[in-house]
Every structure is written in structure tokens, then in C-alpha cells.
Design brief:
The structure is a single chain. The protein is of the alpha+beta class and 618 residues long. The protein is built from 23 helices and nine strands. The strands form three sheets. Strands 5, 6, 7, 8 and 9 form a five-stranded antiparallel beta sheet that branches. It has a two-stranded antiparallel sheet with strand order 1-2. Strands 3-4 form a two-stranded antiparallel sheet. Strand 1 and strand 2 form a beta hairpin. Helix 6 runs parallel beside helix 8, helix 14 crosses helix 16 and helix 19 crosses helix 22. It is globular.
């Protein structure tokens, strides 16, 4: 990237603002305003601010100042300035390395305000490290290693006191910092493989939570459930067992084999036991030459049964769903303040709504089929009309039960990974879960988005799409086996259409990349100015999409109110799905892009075309 072009006055203003920030005579209010003004200048241009000499010198001066600052309020604000730079502008490695040492230093500061501000800095500090990698970044690993040393050094005698009951202290701040830095699947799995890096954080009520693959304790946390909660959870397990029975029979397991499987499952008390049952079923299916994808619904129901079976240990009754949700991480913080019995009631309500849509839809479609065959009977003398009618209803129920099973599976994953995802009505969230099934199966399902919108009380079918795509992207990051989101019918159809896949030749007027990526020009727009921060978010999301294999990023060109993306889109993925994903992820919780775009793979759009497109949006 070329060195940013700023006026002499702008460069002087940047240097002046940094002088104000580090000056001991600047009031706290003026310091905050200087920080805000500095960001506005840097944000005015789509530039890499780390190439600006005045900015680099200013940051160096702030780092030098915080090392000797003794006024707590001023130190807190200076730490926030540093965090501001780290969050909004991708910092160089040497800056991040220095920040690692400073954060660890501030975490043992005598002031609780300083420690808390330092802890909050961890998220932005690691924002640019370890993303989309199999292992955490080396700096993150170094941070965890040094943090564990500090925790051991400051461990008090009363280690069995839950963290919620501890008064403010260095030890408590270090524990909370540990939970912040290890959050996320990649880091948690890495720590789970390194016993010397594992710290057990004790919460108010506890039971060991294990990594599902290694059975190594990750965190301690469980919650004593109310009797009504336990009863409803047990009912969910029973309903999953009933669906399991259907799917086992559908896959042609014999009665004796099904009884044997149910017997093994009844004594499966841990996730490892569950995996052994699934392994047993897979081996049995292989011997019987059962089509592998018929096992998907079976695996889903076994997971649901394991999730909702009520267990008791050391006098504490719990379910794995509640344990997993209790230890889940949200974007901002660990959701300690959730009322878990209320959360459980919401979970049960959404599961009930999922079944409600299934029952309503099948009932309505059955009536339509009955009316259709009644009309046929009037004009024909078909003797087998009754058998056809019954077969169609059975097929409809089987297809919908597959979709219903996936919706239940999605809900469990969603609310375990994001326990705070409870703001929508149960009917709306149930419709969203079915919408994800629709999205992942390319519409090869019996119902329509219009019917989902009506069930969730949306005004139009298009209104549900944004929520569905948001949840779909979240689940794609966390679900261990994405094929469990596919229906048997959709997988059958995919197998049929891909028989001659190797003979397919893809082409595009704009050319292809690596033979499988079609080159597209995409114009995304905003109703406001696209800042350097916005463009950085957009570019990171494009790179993340490329890491997932759906596209290749050739360039992202920012302009005042729009950006031009030159992408290679995989021929096997709908182009609109990729761009929808990029827009939703880039918007995040602070939307700046319109949910609308101009896309072409026939020619390079002229400025006149782009201007006309933008004008049509006003």
C-alpha cells in the first residue's frame, strides 16, 4: 500500500493531538476529546495509518508515557488510547509484542480500574492474531504461558472460593483475563492439549466440563436445575428417542439391533460414551451396507438425547446442554448474569415451537393432499388412489421429520454457543432454525420461506432472510459436522447432480482463477461514508471468506460511499450467498453496508454504471 497522502496541516494536527494526549497538564476531558479528534482525522482517509510518521511517533510517545504514568485516571485513559489504536487499525507485530508485555504488567497493577481496563484490552489486542488458523498465534500462546505463571504466583490459600464471591484482587483479575484470552474454539482446543496451560476457574456452582474429544477439564461450571426444568429436559430426550426410533427403522436396522442400540445409549453417561455408541452404529451400518448419509439423522438424535438427559453427580442435577451453555462465550463477555432456569424455559419453548411448525405444516399439507386425491377420484377410476395418498403422506412426514430434526439440532447448537440469543419470540427463533435448514439445503425442503415468515409473524418472506443468514454464518463456525445440517433428500440430489462433476468446465467472460473460481466485480454501497475502519472490517471478512475456500480475493477498493470488490467466486457456491455472507459479517453489530449490491461477471463496470446504480438506491 502506498504511503498515505495527508496535508501538512493534517500531519501537524496529528502530532499536536498526540502531544495533548501525553501532556500531564491536559485534563481528562480534553484527553478524551483529543483521542476522539485523532481518530476522526485518521478515519477521514482510507489509509494505513501505521505508515504515517506522526502517528508512529505519537504511539511510541504514548507507550513511553504509560510506562511511567502514576495518576490512575490518566493511566486508564491512556490505556484506552492504545486499545483504540489496536482495535481500529491493524498494528504491526512489534507493537502487538510490546502490548503483550504491557497488558500483563497492568493486570497486576494495584488499581482495580487499571486491571479491568487491561483485561478489556485483551479482546482488541488479539483481534488480528490467531484468526482463521488451526492454532492460536505465537504471541497469544506466549501471552497464555506468561499469564499462567502470574496466576500461580498470585494464587491465594483460599483457592476454592468461586470467582463471583471473590472481592476485587490481582488474582481475580488474572482469572478473568485467563477466561478472556482462552475463549474461542481454536484456543480452547489448544489449551485442552496442554495440561500445563490449564487453569480451573471455579464458579458459584461447579462440575467439571470436559473437552468433548479429549475429555480434559476445560472450565468448572454447572447449575442446579429446578424440578420443572429437569422434567421438561427429560421430555425433550424422550421425544428425541422417538425420532431416533423412526430414523433407525428408516435406515433398515432390525428390531433386535434397535433394542441393542437403545440399550447402549441408556448407559452412555459422557460425550465419549456417546461417541462409542455412534461408532458402534457406523460399524453396524457398514456391515449392513446402509447408505452412510442415512446415519445423519441418527447421529443428530443421539446428540439431542445426550444433551437433554438428566444426570446427577455429587447431589447436583444437570444436563449437558445447560453445562455447555453455562460455559459458552458471547462476543463481549462471559454470560454469568443469565437466569438459567428462565433460559431453560425459553429453550423448551422454542423446541416446542419447532414441533408446532412441524405439526401445523404436516396437518395442512395432509389436508391439501386429501383434497387433491378427492378431486382426482371424481374424474378417474384409479383403484390405487388410496395407497398413493397414504404413500405421499408418509413421504411428506419423513421429509419434514428430517427437517424438524435438523431444526432441533440447530437450536441446541445456537443457544449453547450463544446463550444470549434469546431476544426473539419462540416462534420467530423456531422459524429461523427452519430457515437455516432451507438455506443449507438450497430450498430442497417441503416448506417455503413465506410459510416460515407467516409462522414467525414477519410481515414479508424477505424479512426473515437476514436473521437466517446471520445464524447460518454463526453455526458454520462452530458446528463440528456441517453435513448434519443436510437432509437425506438434499444429499441424494447432490449425489445425482455430481456424478459427472469432473466433466464440468466452468468459464466466465471475465475469466477464471485456478479453473474453479469465476471472476466477478461486486459493488457494495453505504448510505454513509465508508471509513478506514469499515474498509478494514470489510477486507478482513473477505479474507475470512477466502480462507473458507468459497472465494479468492484479488482486491478491495474503497471509495467515499461504496467499495469495489474484485473476487473469484467458487462455481459450486451461489454467488449471492457469498456476497450476502460478506455483507452480514462486515456489518456485524454496527451495520454500514446496504443489503444490496451490484454484481457482474461479464465486464468491468464503468464509473457511469456505478453512479447510475448508486443513484437508483437514493
Amino acid at each position: 500500500m502506498n504511503t498515505p497522502t495527508l496535508t501538512k496541516a493534517e500531519r501537524a494536527n496529528i502530532a499536536h493531538l498526540y502531544d495533548l494526549i501525553i501532556s500531564h497538564t491536559t485534563s481528562i476531558a480534553d484527553l478524551k476529546q483529543s483521542k476522539k479528534s485523532l481518530h476522526q482525522i485518521l478515519n477521514k482517509h482510507c489509509i494505513d495509518c501505521w505508515q504515517i510518521l506522526e502517528h508512529k511517533n505519537g504511539v511510541a510517545a504514548v507507550l513511553k508515557t504509560v510506562a511511567t504514568e502514576t495518576d490512575v485516571k490518566r493511566l486508564v485513559e491512556l490505556i484506552r488510547v492504545i486499545g483504540h489504536m489496536s482495535y481500529y487499525f491493524k498494528a504491526p507485530l512489534e507493537f502487538n509484542r510490546e502490548m503483550k508485555g504491557l497488558i500483563l504488567h497492568w493486570l497486576v497493577h494495584e488499581s482495580g480500574s487499571v486491571r479491568d481496563t487491561a483485561k478489556r484490552l485483551i479482546g482488541s489486542w488479539r483481534l488480528h492474531d490467531g484468526l482463521h488458523q488451526k492454532d492460536p498465534a505465537p504471541l497469544v500462546i506466549e501471552f497464555i504461558t506468561e499469564l499462567v505463571v502470574l496466576i500461580h504466583k498470585h494464587t491465594p490459600a483460599d483457592v476454592l472460593v468461586p470467582v463471583e464471591q471473590r472481592p476485587p484482587s490481582v488474582y481475580k483479575s488474572l482469572l478473568l483475563a485467563y477466561e478472556e484470552i482462552v475463549r474461542g474454539l481454536t484456543t480452547e482446543n489448544f489449551v485442552a492439549s496442554k495440561p500445563d496451560l490449564q487453569i480451573i476457574v471455579l464458579h458459584e456452582v461447579f462440575e467439571p466440563v470436559y473437552d468433548r474429544s479429549t475429555q480434559i477439564p476445560l472450565l468448572w461450571s454447572v447449575h442446579q436445575c429446578e424440578a420443572a426444568t429437569l422434567s421438561k429436559s427429560a421430555k425433550l430426550a424422550e421425544e428425541a428417542a422417538a425420532r431416533l426410533q423412526f430414523f433407525l427403522e428408516q435406515a433398515t436396522f432390525t428390531t433386535k439391533e434397535i433394542i441393542n442400540i437403545r440399550s447402549h445409549l441408556s448407559v452412555a453417561n459422557t460425550p465419549t460414551d456417546q461417541e462409542l455408541v455412534i461408532e458402534h452404529i457406523v460399524l453396524l451400518a457398514s456391515e449392513k451396507q446402509i447408505i452412510p448419509h442415512l446415519l445423519g439423522p441418527i447421529v443428530r438424535e443421539i446428540q439431542l438425547i445426550t444433551n437433554h438427559t438428566v444426570r446427577n453427580q455429587k447431589g447436583v442435577s444437570y444436563t449437558y446442554t445447560l453445562v455447555s451453555a453455562r460455559t459458552a462465550w458471547t462476543e463481549d463477555k462471559r454470560p454469568i448474569g443469565i437466569n438459567w432456569n428462565d433460559w431453560s424455559q425459553y429453550l423448551f419453548s422454542v423446541h416446542a415451537a419447532i414441533d408446532g411448525f412441524f405439526n401445523d405444516f404436516v396437518s395442512a399439507e395432509t389436508e391439501k393432499l386429501a383434497a387433491m386425491y378427492k378431486r382426482i377420484a371424481r374424474y378417474t377410476s384409479m383403484s390405487d388412489e388410496g395407497s398413493d395418498h397414504a404413500e405421499d403422506i408418509l413421504n411428506l412426514r419423513a421429509q419434514m421429520l428430517d427437517c424438524c430434526s435438523i431444526a432441533h439440532h440447530i437450536l441446541d447448537w445456537l443457544l449453547q454457543e450463544s446463550p444470549n440469543f434469546t431476544t426473539k419470540t419462540p416462534e420467530k427463533l423456531a422459524a429461523i432454525c427452519y430457515g437455516v435448514v432451507y438455506e443449507k439445503n438450497q430450498g430442497v425442503v417441503p416448506y417455503t420461506t413465506k410459510e416460515l415468515a407467516a409462522f414467525g409473524l414477519w410481515k414479508a418472506a424477505g424479512s426473515i432472510r437476514y436473521s437466517v443468514l446471520t445464524v447460518t454464518m454463526l453455526l458454520e463456525e462452530v458446528i463440528a459436522d456441517p453435513t448434519l445440517l443436510m437432509t437425506v433428500q438434499a444429499i441424494d440430489l447432490m449425489a445425482e447432480t455430481k456424478e459427472d462433476d469432473e466433466a464440468i468446465v466452468v468459464s466466465s467472460p471475465l475469466g477464471t482463477i485456478n479453473d474453479v473460481y469465476l471472476r466477478f466485480y461486486v459493488v457494495v454501497s453505504s448510505s454513509q461514508s465508508i471509513s478506514i475502519v469499515d474498509h478494514a472490517r470489510l477486507r478482513r471478512v473477505c479474507d475470512a471468506e477466502a480462507a473458507a475456500g468459497t472465494c479468492v480475493v484479488e482486491s478491495t477498493l474503497p471509495y467515499s460511499t461504496y467499495a469495489v470488490l474484485l473476487l473469484g467466486l467458487h462455481y459450486d457456491v451461489p454467488p449471492q450467498t457469498i456476497i450476502d455472507n460478506i455483507i452480514i459479517a462486515a456489518n456485524g453489530t454496527k451495520p454500514f453496508l446496504r443489503f444490496h449490491f451490484l454484481m457482474t461477471n461479464t465486464h468491468v463496470p464503468s464509473q457511469k454504471e456505478i453512479d447510475a446504480y448508486l443513484k437508483s438506491l437514493r
